[in-house]
Design brief:
This is Fluoride-specific ion channel FluC. GO terms for molecular function: fluoride channel activity; metal ion binding. It is a multi-pass membrane protein. It catalyses: fluoride(in) = fluoride(out). It comes from Micromonospora inaquosa. It is a single chain. By secondary structure, this protein is mainly alpha-helical. The chain has one domain. The protein contains five helices and no strands. Helix 1 runs parallel beside helix 3, helix 2 packs antiparallel against helix 3 and helix 2 runs parallel beside helix 5. It is globular.
């Protein structure tokens, strides 16, 4: 059942990523990979919150973690595309944008995850620092 939870969650997450990409792509400037950046920041925030809720035992059943974290959020976010886009920017002699993208994505992802975790902690009444 765990594998099924991951498969279903991953399918939903990847589909949501695709649909969000379709919606964001026409409105974003072409000089920065905004779509992947936004998707990964939203995913980092969500994963921080989900892991905190899991630690507080606020998510249902034994398949909550694999469905939500590995499946849904793992299927939604895209580390590989982020790395390829960074490499393409650097290879296209747009190194400054590529390096900024790398740094801002990593630092922003950590901050987004921390914010998600903190907001979840406030929701469940746990003090900061008691995460999974």
């Amino acid at each position: 059942m765990t594998i099924l939870a991951i498969v279903v969650g991953g399918g939903i997450g990847a589909t949501l990523r695709y649909l969000l990409g379709l919606g964001l792509a026409p409105s974003t400037p072409p000089d920065f990979p905004w779509v992947t950046f936004v998707i990964n920041m939203v995913g980092a925030f969500a994963l921080g919150a989900v892991m905190t809720l899991l630690a507080a035992h606020r998510l249902p059943g034994p398949w909550g973690k694999p469905f939500l974290s590995t499946g849904l959020i793992g299927g939604f976010t895209t580390w590989s595309h982020f790395i390829v886009e960074s490499d393409q920017l650097i290879g296209a002699r747009r190194s400054a944008i590529g390096i900024v993208y790398l740094v801002v994505s990593i630092v922003g992802g950590v901050l987004a995850a921390a914010l998600g975790a903190r907001l979840a902690e406030l929701r469940v009444g746990h003090p900061a620092g008691r995460r999974a």
